[in-house]
Amino acid sequence: MIRQLFTLIWNRKKSNFLMITEIFFSFIVLFGVLSLAFYYLNNYQKPLGYKYDKVWVMNMRWNQEKSEEIKTIQRRLKQQLNSNPEVESITLMSSNIPYTANMMGTGFDYNNRTVQTNVFDIDKDFARVMQLKLTDGRWFNDQDLNSKYTTIVIDQAMRAEVFKNEQVIGKIIPGKSGEDTGIKIVGVIEAFRQNGEYSATAPGFFKLRDVEMDSVHMKGSLSAMLIRIKPGVASGFEEKLMKQASRIAQGWTLEIKTMPEMRTSYNKVALIPLIIFSIVCGFLIINVALGLFGVLWYNISRRISEIGLRRAIGAASGQIYRQFIGEVLVLATFGLLIGLVVALQFPLLQVFGVQTGVYVAAMVGAVIIIYLLAAACAAYPSRQAAIIPPATALHEE
Amino acid sequence: MNNFSLNPLGATTALVADAPHAPDYVIKLTDIEKVYQTKTIETVALHNINIAIRKGEFVSIMGPSGCGKSTLLNIMGLLDEPNSGTVEIDGAPVKSYSDKTLARLRNQKIGFVFQSYHLINDLSVTDNVELPLLYRNISGSERRKRALAALEKVGLSARSRHYPNQLSGGQRQRVAIARALAGQPEIILADEPTGNLDSVMGNEIMDILLRLNTEEQTTIVMVTHDELMAKKTERLIRLFDGSQVS
């Protein structure tokens, strides 16, 4: 029976071409949407590497002050704000704070290979404020403040990408010039996904730049202050913080936001492509469903005498119903086979660098949805075909 | 108890141990009434029909257009139900049978030949002939074997790979007969099988039906308008305005 269904659909390929094409395009769009959705889901399940709740972010914009003056003000700011009983800990970092689009990157050279990595300039309190999870080695300490080397802590993604299975703790990567004495790795953290839960894990490392450092070891300034507040502190504390900060950093532009707020708005933006794509896909699917329904209805009304013949030669009502459902599924199979040939190119050619598993899950999901859609659209017309009395059907020409 | 069951090979068996009539009547219609009713009109298609057809008989049904010949054939072929009266196949009344059982009975006992052939143009001749066998548990190779054997019986082996629209009217009707034969039915119901054909082709078709009847003892009931064709059969039933006149 299945062989004959395939033969029948294949022999009617000209009249079924439009429907097969529609199914093909629906599959491709659905595959795209599901790939994106599974990509986000896959990223979401990976460790973020830090805790954003109870963290407030103070962005600082100074005027014409010199680097030393800025450092002095920031040291005082840190001390003053930290003295509040509501504050648990405070840290300073570069502008590429989590849930912002600010990026700082570098090409990390190792073994004649350059890997693009994120760089985060932070002080030694950063791990406590962001509650980073150390997986190997140690976090920065006072010895690192005036170390001969630039000490760094890397994340697991960088370790895997740059060093593979090598022992990294204590590793010194020599500098390229006389002034640059080199880099020393002191620790490895689980992850630090600056761009939030929906972003891919990217290699990155932390470079110590503490206000306690002398000017030889620290050039430039850190523009963000991250404040971890204690549980149960009301939002009214923000005003108190702001007043204290404004008194110390006179003339600076200060702005406080909570990291959960930043996360919400950043993630909304991150999800926009998926939402837009899903809406377009939804409309396409509705269009295809209506098209399928209409074409099936028309096809069945054209084939009433065939239905009569099949009933006469021994098909029960249920078999007619299953035959028409089967035909639509076979039709969907033709569209899906073409679609799968196209979709398979994505994991094979490693398009967009997305994991193969994401593409496979999207393909399986899209195939199931298309089959369900086709079966649902065929159900009512097929039922109508099945209940036509055989004697009536036989007299339709 | 009149019951209908399948043996393990899929062949039909009528359990007629306590049936009131001996099973030498393959089809028996008793007091058949058929009325088509719309909101405004009531049309009597068949009235008080009593027909019994013996195994191996070749019966023709004649009558003017609209006298109920096709309705009668549909009732005999279990494609339509009478409003009252009894239809018996192999001595067993079919009234209580489910749609599934009726379908199985049609598939295994009855072969249909229609005036307009009812071939599926998108399937090859062999695939068309195989159609009744698709509703049985038969392997693909066995289906093909039986279909080719049926085509040989009607002299169309050479056209097995053709499609219906590549054949003449007579050849198409022969394919339709082969399709009816593929299921090896005991009964063939033919609704004006020569109606669309010229006299030469009509005679060819009639010869095939006669040969099936004499050589394989297939019971044939044929509706026809053609007096000459009817005269070739064993018995003629005449209908007029839904009633049996002879």
Total number of strands of chain B: 12
Low-pLDDT residue spans of chain A: none
SSE topology string of chain B? EEEEEHEEHEHHHEHEHEE
Beta fraction of chain B: 25-35%
- Hey, which two chains have the biggest interface? A-B, 27 and 32 residues
Helical content of chain B, roughly?
Answer: 25-40%
Reading side by side through the largest sheet of chain B, how are the strands ordered? 8-9-10-5-11-12
For the biggest sheet of chain B, the summary is: 6 strands, mixed
Major sheet size, sense and barrel closure of chain A: 7 strands, mixed
Number of strands of chain A: 11
Beta-strand level of the residues of chain A, as a percent range? Answer: 15-25%
- The outline of chain B comes out as globular
Give the termini distance of chain A in whole angstroms: 25 Å
Element-by-element helix/strand order of chain A: HHEHEEEHEEHEEEEHEHHHHHH
Structural class of chain B: alpha/beta
- The structural domain count of chain B equals 1
* The CATH fourth-level homologous superfamily of chain B: P-loop containing nucleotide triphosphate hydrolases
Features:
heterodimer, A: 397 residues, 2 domains, 7-stranded mixed β-sheet, 17% strand, B: 246 residues, alpha/beta, 4-stranded antiparallel β-sheet
In short:
The complex is a heterodimer of chains A (about 400) and B (about 250). With about 400 residues, chain A is of the alpha+beta class. Chain A is built from 12 helices and 11 strands.
Task: Explain this structure.
The complex is a heterodimer of chains A (397) and B (246). Chain A folds into two domains: 2-46 and 271-394, no CATH class; 63-251, no CATH class. Chain A contains twelve helices and eleven strands. Chain A has helices at residues 2-11, 13-45, 67-82, 126-130, 156-163, 237-248, 259-302, 304-312, 317-343, 345-348, 356-386, 390-394, and strands at 55-61, 87-93, 105-110, 113-122, 134-137, 150-155, 172-173, 183-189, 204-208, 224-229, 253-258. In chain A, strands 3, 4, 5, 6, 7, 8 and 9 form a seven-stranded mixed beta sheet that branches. In chain A, a hairpin with a 2-residue loop joins β3 and β4 (113-122). The two termini of chain A are 25 Å apart. Helix content of chain B is 33%, strand content 28%. Chain B has seven helices and twelve strands. In chain B, strands 8-9-10-5-11-12 form a six-stranded mixed beta sheet, sandwiched between helices. A four-stranded antiparallel beta sheet of chain B has the order 4-3-6-7, covered by helices on one side. The chains are: A alpha+beta (397), B alpha/beta (246). At the A-B interface, α1, α8, α9 and α12 of A face α1, α2, β8 and α3 of B.
